[in-house]
Amino acid sequence: MSPEDQPLKIGALLFDGLDQIDLTGPFEVLSRIPNSTYRIYGKSLEPVRDVKGLQLTPEATLNKAPQLDLLHIPGGPGQEALMEDEAVLGWVRHQAAGARIVFSVCTRALICGAAGLLKERQATTHWTARHLLPYFGALPSDERVVVDGNLVCAAGVTAGIDGALLVAAMLRGEEAAKAIQLYMQYVPEPPFNAGSPKTAPPEIVESVRASAQDLMIRREATAHRVGKRLGFALPSKA
Known about the structure:
Blueprint: E1 8-13, H1 20-30, E2 36-42, E3 48-49, E4 55-56, E5 60-61, E6 70-73, H2 79-82, H3 86-98, E7 101-105, H4 109-114, E8 122-123, E9 139-140, E10 145-148, E11 151-154, H5 159-172, H6 174-184, H7 202-211, H8 213-230
Parallel strand pairs: 1-2, 1-6, 2-5, 6-7, 7-11, 8-9
Antiparallel strand pairs: 3-4, 10-11
Helix pairs in contact: 1-5, 5-6
């Protein structure tokens, strides 16, 4: 935990095709951490669109980012294009080396893996991509939020809010995190118990899996290439 009189620099990577709630859900929490600043960085200053078309604009380019105390890495289908983008991976590695916490949300764990940050570390990601984590030397977990040293991984999409509250507690203490949660009135009461493949009806799980099949195939091919380049022992393909 950091004393409140020590300012915190928080930054997130913005890219085309992200899931905006992977960014904006945690932003609601992290931007309220006392004595902190939150900035969004991109490869360029050009606006990008999230996977459903919402337009978002970076505040500065990657090379203008200071050393961040907290690196927030959102996910989404657009991560596929970044898993072999050395400019982005190099920036992630550089920031992670000096950050107090690296916070990955959803499939952004695959970017952390491609940057070499997951070797022999526990991690989680969206349930449709969790089986890819061993390609990067990670130890997969099906927990909603996983902490391994200074690495915090949240599973799919909305888990980013839970992860962000935990990160807030790690940085400023539980009282600060609880005050943020209360301000947000974050008391989830979903109308259906279908937010996990463990609880959703089997036919719904298969329907969602089928709708993501093409993306899952592309992700596995990319994970295989990257894992091979990084020298990890790859899981055998069925």
